[in-house]
Design goal:
The complex is a heterodimer of chains A (370) and B (325).
Chain A: H1 11-19, E1 24-25, H2 45-70, H3 84-92, E2 99-101, H4 107-112, H5 117-125, H6 148-162, E3 169-174, H7 181-192, E4 197-203, E5 206-207, E6 210-211, H8 212-215, H9 224-228, E7 232-236, H10 240-258, E8 261-266, H11 286-293, H12 297-307, H13 313-335, H14 342-347, H15 355-368
Parallel strand pairs in A: 1-7, 2-3, 3-4, 4-8, 7-8
Antiparallel strand pairs in A: 5-6
Helix pairs in contact in A: 2-3, 2-12, 2-13, 3-10, 5-13, 6-7
Chain B: E1 2-4, H1 6-20, E2 24-28, H2 44-48, E3 53-55, H3 60-72, E4 76-80, H4 91-104, E5 114-119, H5 134-138, E6 144-146, H6 151-163, E7 168-173, E8 182-184, E9 197-200, E10 205-209, H7 213-225, E11 231-235, E12 238-240, H8 244-254, E13 257-264, H9 269-280, E14 290-294, H10 305-308, H11 312-324
Parallel strand pairs in B: 2-3, 2-4, 4-5, 5-7, 6-7, 10-11, 10-13, 13-14
Antiparallel strand pairs in B: 1-8, 6-12, 9-11
Classes of the chains: A alpha/beta (370), B alpha/beta (325).
The complex binds thiamine diphosphate.
């Protein structure tokens, strides 16, 4: 249906028109029923089971990481429960050679993309060895500066295009992050160069305590892509199949040389912002949390798969146990990491050491040998 | 008088200035309902309303620009940067815009802005939360950098900063927030900007420092006293511009100096103190000027902070070396 021509001076109508343009894409409803065949992805039974397995793995990892943090066995931790579909289903659509530029909460995708779990733990503990990435791991460590990875993704994406690689750069920020200058610069650059990027905004409703409504007057965050001239989609971020479908389509489009895509996933984090003292009861209610629990991505996918005879309680139990074992082993490996030395940090400052650094290395070597 | 932590003293100062002057506005990420991630603005939105104390979208450059614009409209913005490591996002607004406005408009406009931020190491934060970046701003003309070392000064200096008509970057060391209490008057009072404090009188060696290192210097001085070495401690309080008079007076008094900063050696404030002394008081020196600082690496990963950060025993050793020279 062709759009009605609007009077450009009728600002109210113009605004309403923009807001109507971004429906939320959904394949599975909260009961695991297919509501939109059109958005069902092309995944084999095995692949669907694998995706569910990863989501269960992520939920267990979140629970165990939270517990380990409280016992003082982990350092920085940003909870992920609730965001499994948004995180794992999007990463599931990527190839190993695609380049991941994660934020601090995107550790599950990073591990699925190839970072050893032990290294993720070392990173959390503030150990440099957790960021010594293998050459074939197409990723950089989680970014702390919000939005910085967006501009960098534009650079990686242009690099991939110039090298004619059939790959994309993919990166994540939050609803809060979509307010940063770097966010706009990143999508605009990638758009201007038609670079191979897929940008995600994981809209979990809050930037620490600040509700999404305070971030912008825009009704959807996806619509921010319009100004950059790039296709932009809002998807139900609690629906793994819809997230996968949209991501896969976005990747195909970007790899084909059409330029970037922006995807907003509507999701929720059940836990606090991080485990460093944030108290979500200060800014959101039990009711809000409850409403989101009803949309849980694991519950709906479990129902869908069970109805198809692809999933069972016993199978899930097995995955949970295996994940706990995997975590136990990785923690032990992390415990065995050698103590960090300032003299080694100094050695990593420059390829060719200036006098000031050499002198300081000598001072710290002497201290460290005591 | 009540015993207060530094963070309580800061909240006090903010509340008193909000009360005293309707043009004072507080804003930043999570400063409203949440009271800031360290709770420095706890209860202020409740008491003064969302027009005076409000959350911003997550964008530091935007926060800086907002402060600049509100100052032009004669408000007195007190903006919070959640952690000072994020200052790079707002560097242009701070050093290239606010700091220049009085100068470039021939004194016809003022920038009565206070930018508050937690900073400093030793509390195991993730990357870019702890960095000592005061030297970066201290190098830029036209802006003050104020760093309190205790609750009493924090309150008085913050009130002075808010009332001052020039931009002030006010840095609060995270380790000092809740580590000790001190008598702090209930009412508003000021501690002057641009004036160093003589924290401890002594005759043998002067330790010139600021921020969390003041407490390390006190520990060192107490240990040295047992060996009969008398240490004078100068707390700079305003690290840019420097209180040269107080610095030179202590150098002339003791003839031996150790300058201490938590920041990396090549990062600023201590280097400026050393330059001023060598230019103005070299003939008063009985020994080379000693320097204690962190090494010249990127701020290290959390687990390694303990061996990286300078501490009381580093200061003690350096003072001994200079004393025995
Ligand atoms: C440049 C910068 N400013 C502020 C912060 C502090 N900070 C860390 S996370 C966060 C909120 C982020 O919210 P959002 O982007 O919605 O992502 P979420 O944490 O909800 O996944 C803030 C303000 C930071 N890390 N970097």
């Amino acid at each position: 249906m062709a759009k009605k021509k609007l009077n450009p001076l009728d600002f109210e109508a113009l605004l309403a028109d923009i807001n109507a343009d971004f429906p939320t894409i959904q394949a599975l409803d909260k009961d695991g029923k297919v509501v939109n065949e059109e958005y069902m992805p092309d995944l084999s039974d095995d692949e669907m089971v694998e995706l569910m397995t990863r989501m269960v793995w992520a939920r267990v990892l979140d629970q165990r990481s939270t517990a380990l943090n409280r016992q003082g066995r982990l350092g920085f931790y940003a909870p992920t429960a609730g965001q499994e579909a948004s995180q794992l289903a999007s990463q599931f659509a990527m190839e190993k050679e695609d380049v991941l530029l994660p934020g601090y909460r995107d550790v599950p995708q990073l591990i699925q993309h190839g970072l050893p779990l032990k290294d993720a733990f070392l990173w959390s503990r503030g150990h440099a060895a957790g960021s010594a990435y293998a050459d074939d791991l197409q990723a950089i460590p989680p970014q702390i500066i919000i939005g910085a990875q967006y501009v960098q993704a534009a650079g990686v994406a242009l690099g991939l295009k110039k090298r004619n690689k059939p790959n994309v750069a993919f990166t994540y920020t939050g609803d809060g992050g979509s307010s940063q200058g770097d966010f706009y610069e990143g999508i605009n650059f990638a758009g201007a160069y038609k670079a191979n990027a897929v940008f995600f905004i994981q809209n979990n409703g809050y930037a620490i305590s600040t509700p999404r409504e305070v971030q912008t007057a825009a009704k959807t965050l996806a619509q921010k892509g319009v100004a950059a001239g790039i296709p932009s989609v809002q998807v139900d971020g609690m629906d793994p199949l819809a997230v996968y479908k949209v991501t896969k389509a976005a990747r195909d489009w970007a790899v084909a040389g059409n330029g970037p895509v922006l995807i907003e996933t509507l999701t929720f984090r059940y836990g606090p912002h991080t485990l460093s003292g944030d108290d979500p009861t200060r800014y959101r209610s039990k009711e809000t949390e409850g409403e989101w629990v009803e949309k849980d991505p694991l519950t709906r996918f479990r129902k869908y798969l069970t109805a198809k005879g692809l999933w069972s309680e016993a199978k899930e139990e097995e995955i949970i146990e295996a994940t706990k074992e995997e975590i136990k082993t990785a923690i032990k490996e992390a415990d065995a990491a050698p103590k960090q030395k300032v003299s080694e940090f100094l050695g990593n400052m420059f390829e060719v050491k200036p006098q000031s650094i050499q002198e300081q290395i000598d001072i710290f070597k002497a201290k460290e040998s005591k | 008088m009540a015993q207060k932590t530094m963070i309580q003293a800061i909240t006090d100062a903010l509340a008193l200035e909000l009360e005293a002057n309707p043009d004072v506005l507080i804003f930043g990420e999570d400063v409203g309902n949440n009271g800031g991630v360290f709770r420095a603005t706890e209860g202020l939105q409740e008491k003064f309303g969302k027009d005076r104390v409000f959350d911003t979208p997550l964008a530091e450059s935007g926060i800086g620009g907002l402060a600049f614009g509100l100052a032009l409209e004669n408000f007195r913005p007190v903006a919070e940067i959640q952690f000072f490591g994020f200052v790079f996002e707002v560097m242009d607004e701070i050093v290239a815009q606010m700091a220049r406005t009085r100068f470039r408009m021939s004194g016809t406009r003022t920038m009565p802005i206070t930018i508050r931020a937690p900073f400093g190491g030793g509390v195991h934060t993730p990357e870019l939360h702890a960095d000592n970046l005061e030297g970066l701003i201290a190098q830029s003309p036209g802006i003050r950098v104020v760093i309190p070392s205790n609750p009493y000064d924090a309150k008085g200096l913050l009130i002075s900063a808010i009332r001052d008509n020039d931009p002030v970057v006010f840095l609060e060391h995270m380790k000092l927030y809740r580590s000790f209490r001190e008598e702090v008057p209930e009412e508003a009072y000021t501690v002057p900007l641009d004036k160093a404090a003589i924290t401890r009188e002594g005759t043998d060696v002067s330790v010139i420092t600021y921020g969390a290192m003041v407490r390390e210097a006190i520990k060192a001085a107490e240990a040295l006293e047992k060996d009969g070495i008398s240490v004078e401690i100068i707390d700079l309080r305003t690290v840019a511009p420097l209180d040269i008079e107080t610095i030179i007076a202590t150098v002339e008094k003791t003839g031996r100096v150790v300058v201490v900063q938590e920041a990396q050696k090549q990062a600023g404030v201590a280097a400026q103190v050393v330059s001023e002394i060598s230019e103005r008081a070299v003939l008063s020196l009985e020994a080379p000027i000693g320097r204690v600082s962190a090494p010249d690496t990127i701020y290290p990963f959390g687990q390694a902070e303990g061996s990286w950060l300078p501490n009381a025993s580093d200061i003690e050793a350096k003072v001994r070396e200079i004393y025995e020279f």
